[in-house]
Amino acid sequence: MNFLYFDPAMGAMIVQAIVAAVAGVLLFSKNVLFKMKVLLGIVKQSDKELFDDMNIEDPDIKNKDSSGS
Known about the structure:
Layout: H1 8-40, H2 45-48, H3 59-67
């Protein structure tokens, strides 16, 4: 009869893999469910702004363009 031997490092690696898999599934499913709610119109309008592009104004770019250099 052959028995498997798991040293502490192997046990820690198995626990880490299980925790990472659970966290990945939870985060992925949360994102997918939120996107489905937005597409179906269940979520309020203010929550849809999360998908809009960010309009960030950089003052250095404006100063460079206005100086004419």
